[in-house]
Amino acid sequence: LKKHLFKDKLITKVIKDVLGNYWVTSHDNGIFIIPNVSFNTINKPKTNTSIKNHFNKFLGFYVQDANNTLYKFIDKKKSLNVITNSKSDIKYVFENPFLNELNIQKEPNKLSVFSSKQKHLKDIKVTGVLKEVNYLNKDVIIKSTNINAGFFKLQKKGKIFAKPIFEISGRSYSNTYSKINKKAYFANINGLFSVDSLYNKKEILDQDKSIFAKKIISNTNGTIWVLCFKNKILKIKNDKIIDSINLKTGLLNPINSHIYKYNKDLWILGNSGIQIYNTITKQFSNITNKDGLPSYDFKGIFIKNDSAFISTSKEIIYFNIKSF
Q1: DSSP state, 199?
Q2: What number of other Cβ atoms are within 10 A of residue 260's Cβ?
Q3: Which terminal Cβ of the chain has fewer Cβ within 10 Å, N or C?
Q4: Which of 248, 312, 319 is nearest to 65 (CA)?
């Protein structure tokens, strides 16, 4: 430890707490904490292939490897089960929570529907390439595609997935719905928009400028978090910005790929590692390659029962978040 972490420092004492963290005191350089971080790895069926995509579901996640094989994460076994092999890139994967069906888009304008036991049921038509789908109820969804976004009514019969109720034209990257506000939010190529229950559309601005977002997530208290394409993450309430996380306030890197909310913490995955932002104290905990992260090429994150599962291009790791 002294040779690699505390070179040229006079160490006076080292103690280990009940969580396994090491506290190191020095003569003139203060106190250092070495967190007890233990990374576990989920074995891939094909060890020589990289991970291309990560798709979250309600109780877990799916991953796609470089050979376009889709796997489902099995929590009890901490393993991956093969769902399907595709000749082409898988565009999007999502579940219908009301019918317990799995939907896979392997090509534009076509959706394959599978039962909970992975039996192929049918193929239906869908407009565009899906980016995000969220169910409001058993009949209505909000979705984002490469050509539009909006509210859509599911079609129970026929070969069409859904018909538009209200549309926003242009490429869309993400969406979310706030039950408290009774509003949907859409990240669009032209900006960030809210749409109320009467389908009134409003652009949300940052100092009179459009907000270009890649991911938006909602909180139970009516606020939403917005991951911008560059430099910042915004917190919005009543269609107004109430907080900004940026380089000046502690963001490690201007380029970040994912955000994920769990309890009071906002998890940020980016080009300099993982940051855990406490939304109450506004303090950061950082996890980098110095802590053993195998890669900063993140594909996704899922957290359940205090276990964080992080997909990178190299491997999937998981650990207990109480280590931080």
Answers
A1: -
A2: 21
A3: N
A4: 312
pLDDT 10s digits, 257-286: 999 999 999 999 999 999 999 999 999 999
Task: Output the six-digit token pair for 195.
Answer: 């749409």
Phi and psi, residue 290, nearest 5°: -70, -25
Give Cα 83 to chain centroid, integer Å: 21
No. of helices (H) and no. of strands (E), the chain: 0, 32
Structure tokens belonging to residue 132: 């995000």
224-248: b (≥16 Cβ within 10 Å) or e = bbbbbeeebbbbbeebebeebbeee
Helices (H), the chain: none
Q: What would the mean pLDDT of 289-312 be, rounded to a whole number?
A: 92
φ/ψ of 247, rounded to 5, equals: -60, -35
What pTM was computed for the model? 0.87
- Picking from 99, 107, 92, the residue whose alpha carbon sits closest to that of residue 137 is 99
> Cβ distance 139 to 119 under 8 Å?
no
Residue 215: is it exposed, middle or buried by C-beta count within 10 angstroms (0-12/13-18/19+)? buried
Amino acid at 152: F
Could you give the CA distance from residue 186 to residue 175 in angstroms, rounded to a whole number? 5
Residue 267 has, within 13 A of its CA and on its CB side, a CA count of 20
Count of residues in the chain: 324
Amino acid in position 256: N
Q: What is the pLDDT of residues 206-251, one digit of tens each?
A: 999 999 999 999 999 999 999 999 899 999 999 999 999 999 999 9
